[in-house]
Every structure is written in structure tokens, then in C-alpha cells.
Predict the structure of Lipoxygenase domain-containing protein 1-like.
Amino acid sequence: MIFTWSSSAFERSKTDVFRVKTNNVGTIRKIRIEHDNTGMNASWYLDRVIVTDMNRPHLRFYFPCNNWLSKDEGDGLYVRDLIGSLNPMDVPKVNKYVVRVFTGDVNGSGTDADVFINIFGQNGDTGTLS
């Protein structure tokens, strides 16, 4: 999944919401979130990600990060695997999710880079979508 839908996405203290329809990965175990380290302000401080199953809106997966995705800040990593909660349930073959991405509230925390996310579950992963 690639998130490049808005020039004002991933700004300091903002929450970005994306609706995606993809193959059903089953119970979500982790997500990989990253950016391509491009743009004048590629460094990004990610607070957390929440993924809501649109077929069962009561089912939310929480992925805390509280870390920089940056070549120049923190530990220098701009790819993060985030472990979330596990709630096993029977799910349909195709699923819709709402992904909320919360950018942290520290100086320089927004990014101009393209941001990617891949959702991993017991049945596989979503892969890169555009």
C-alpha cells in the first residue's frame, strides 16, 4: 500500500485516515511501515497506527511506534515492523480496512517522503498497493 494521496499528509500532530480494499490477510499480526527517504524533509516521527476492520468496525488493531522513521534521527531506520494486538475471528476473503496514521508532535516530525504500509496477517500480507 502506498500513501501519497495528499500533499498535506503526515504533518506534525495530524492524523491521516486511508480507506483501503485488499485481500483478507486474516488476523493482523504486524504491519511494516516505511518511507522512501525522499523529499526535503524525509524524517518522520510516527506515534502510532490504528487499523480498523470495516467488516467488523468494533475490531481495531493498535500498533504503537513512538519512534523516528529517519536516516538522520533516532536509530537511523526508516522501515519499522510494528507488532499489534491479535484477535482471531472468522473473516471474509476480501476485506476493507480504515488505517489511521498519527504523526508525532515533535519538531520536524512531518515528512515529505512517500510512505508505505504493508499489513501482515495469518493468511499472508496485503503487498504494495497504489
User: Anything to note?
Assistant: The chain has a mean pLDDT of 83. The first strand starts at residue 2 and ends at 3. The radius of gyration is 14 Å. DSSP finds no helices and nine strands in the chain.
